[in-house]
């Protein structure tokens, strides 16, 4: 089960996905709301916290989550404060009841990761791509449009066209033809 704990929150935050199952995982910690209470109202504990990237809106609650649930934060670059363990490009990670492929997808931020499970048909895209062909900002430090386009193209090469769920760092998840939204983002990124 995948539950967006930030849904309906009226604060500047990222989406925060709780994936329950064999390995209960939180994807991103969000910011500016009580994510610890939100987790506790749904599950007894967490096995891990995975980060798509370390922009403030995704990690503002990081220390609260780590402390409350005695979990490590896993991300691409363990030299960044708060990231305890490394997830390298193409590492496989257990999330819920499925194995996911971690994809290093810079362009929005250098340490950006997406998580994809072919078996589940699920892509956690962070701020790489959003609904309706939107894509991550490249005007922030470490942002680069060309690199973002390369990351979008890589995701399109790896992700199956039968993708059933696209969970994004902001806005609604996409369950109707999500692969098309990634394709559109790759086209739109080239036009701006």
Automatic annotation (TrEMBL):
One of its GO terms (molecular function) is metal ion binding. SMART domains: Lactamase_B (SM00849). Keywords: Hydrolase, Metal-binding, Zinc. Its cofactor is Zn(2+). Residues 13-170 form the Metallo-beta-lactamase domain. InterPro entries: MBL_Glyoxalase_II (IPR051453), Metallo-B-lactamas (IPR001279), RibonucZ/Hydroxyglut_hydro (IPR036866). The keyword Zinc applies. The keyword Translocase does not apply. It holds the Pfam family Lactamase_B. This is Beta-lactamase. It comes from Natronobacterium lacisalsi AJ5. The lineage of its organism: Archaea, Methanobacteriati, Methanobacteriota, Stenosarchaea group, Halobacteria.
């Amino acid at each position: 089960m995948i539950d967006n704990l930030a849904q309906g929150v009226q604060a500047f935050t990222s989406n925060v996905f709780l994936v329950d199952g064999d390995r209960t995982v939180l994807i991103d910690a969000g910011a500016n709301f009580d994510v610890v209470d939100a987790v506790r109202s749904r599950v007894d504990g967490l096995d891990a916290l995975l980060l798509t990237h370390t922009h403030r809106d995704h990690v503002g609650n990081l220390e609260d989550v780590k402390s409350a649930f005695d979990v490590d934060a896993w991300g691409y670059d363990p030299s960044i404060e708060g990231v305890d363990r490394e997830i390298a490009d193409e590492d496989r990670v257990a999330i819920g009841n499925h194995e996911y492929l971690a994809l290093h997808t810079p362009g929005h931020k250098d340490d950006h990761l997406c998580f994809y499970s072919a078996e589940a048909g699920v892509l956690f895209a962070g701020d790489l791509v959003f609904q309706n062909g939107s894509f991550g900002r490249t005007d922030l430090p470490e942002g680069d449009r060309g690199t973002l386009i390369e990351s979008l193209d890589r995701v399109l090469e790896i992700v199956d066209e039968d993708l059933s769920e696209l969970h994004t760092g902001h806005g609604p998840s996409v369950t109707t033809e999500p692969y098309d939204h990634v394709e559109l983002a790759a086209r739109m990124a080239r036009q701006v």
